[in-house]
Write a structure and sequence with these properties.
There is one protein chain. The protein is of the alpha/beta class and 361 residues long. It has one domain. Helices cover 45% and strands 14% of the residues. The strands form three sheets. The protein has a seven-stranded mixed sheet, with helices on both faces. Strands 8-9-10 form a three-stranded antiparallel sheet, with no helix packed on it. The longest helix has 34 residues. The chain is globular. GO terms for molecular function: O-acyltransferase activity. Belongs to the diacylglycerol acyltransferase family. It holds the Pfam family DAGAT.
């Protein structure tokens, strides 16, 4: 009996010593600093945004289809009925949730790059505006962060102005994803949706349009600034019909977030990309960024590169119900001049050289 007790005491002492050793080892491990925690939060905020835009719509659609063949089929049926009932809401200003713009996640998202917004002129709440957003880049990070989230202070810089961002109409046909987009202030890039905001939603509305669209993303790469704009005049005609002033904006650094394999014009891969873009609205870019584990690894997350979006001087536009081609060309030219001036006045301030030029195709 004494032998058993002695053995138990010895084991207990050994266990206590092991626990103490483990605790000392744990305490010796350096705890993450506040800077490390902020870096992780920033990375996670960007990860959720990328996954939301790349996967939310497709995964939600597949999930609802799967539920149709299970005992939870009423969920899919009821949501389908809701979409039919709510079909026109995206074309009528959407369903904005102010709390989403104030979501603290967007501050970490902003600080990851970081993204900044600069104002050169005031915007009067007594007018409506079409903001041309350039360049498209791969995922329009600057346009989203500045015009959809409240993290860069758009509402404080432009009091009385309510921003919207136009995106592909097909996105609003995807379940769940459509609710996410509308809650942030995104709208379809259609005449009906933009016309509603510029004529039936009062004044003080600013609709941001990434004018170059998917076609421009095919030429996106660091060190090259090429805009698809020369023959894009629909936004000018829309502005004239509703008397909305035209405002150029440029996001310096947008093209530095990813590395893309750019196929030359005339190559068979470029023709496939262009055909795909014409059929479904977006271009299948071959790109990569950083991985989740380290900056050196490759993945689908954007590199942490500073983005500065500069909002330029408004081009005053009269209201003309049926503008002539000459009038559209006139204001299109005025807009391009204003955009070029904005670019040239600010390029050296935000990481570009004096010799860098803006190429407009």
């Amino acid at each position: 009996m004494k032998t058993i007790i002695a053995a138990c005491s010895q084991n207990l002492s050994g266990s206590r010593a092991s626990i103490q050793k483990a605790l000392r080892t744990l305490l010796a491990v350096p705890w993450p600093s506040q800077r490390d925690i902020c870096s992780w939060l920033q990375l996670l905020s960007v990860l959720q945004w990328v996954l939301s835009f790349l996967l939310m719509g497709t995964v939600s659609l597949l999930l609802l289809i799967y539920l149709l063949f299970t005992s939870f089929w009423p969920i899919s049926v009821l949501y389908l009925a809701w979409i039919i009932f709510d079909w026109d809401t995206p074309e009528k200003g959407g369903r904005r949730l102010p709390c989403l713009r104030r979501w603290s996640v967007w501050k970490h998202f902003r600080d990851y790059f970081p993204v900044k917004l600069m104002k050169t002129h005031d915007l009067s709440p007594s007018h409506n505006y079409i903001i041309g957003s350039h360049p498209h880049g791969i995922l329009c990070v600057g346009a989203f962060c500045n015009f959809i989230t409240g993290s860069t202070g758009f509402s404080e810089m432009f009091p009385g102005i309510q921003p919207f961002l136009a995106t592909l109409a097909g996105n609003f046909r995807l379940p769940i994803f459509r609710e996410y987009l509308m809650s942030g202030g995104l709208c379809p890039v259609t005449r009906r949706a933009i016309g509603y905001l510029l004529s039936q939603n009062g004044t003080g509305n600013a609709v941001a349009i990434v004018i170059g669209g998917a076609a421009e993303s095919l030429s996106c790469r660091p060190g090259v600034t090429t805009l698809i704009l020369k023959n894009r005049k629909g936004f000018v005609r829309m502005a004239l019909r509703h008397g909305a002033h035209l405002v150029p904006s440029f996001s310096f650094g947008e093209n530095d977030l990813f590395r893309q394999v750019v196929f030359e014009e005339g190559s068979w891969m470029r023709s496939i990309q262009q055909r795909f873009q014409k059929m479904i609205g977006f271009a299948p870019c071959v790109f990569y960024g950083r991985g989740l584990t380290s900056v050196q690894s490759r993945g689908f997350l954007p590199y942490a590169r500073p983005i500065t979006t500069v909002v330029g001087k408004p081009v005053a536009v009269p209201k003309v119900e049926n503008p002539s081609r000459e009038m559209v060309d006139k204001y299109h030219e005025l807009y391009i001049r204003s955009l070029l001036k904005l670019f040239n006045d600010n390029k050296t301030k935000y990481g570009m050289l004096e010799t860098d030029e803006l190429h407009i195709l």
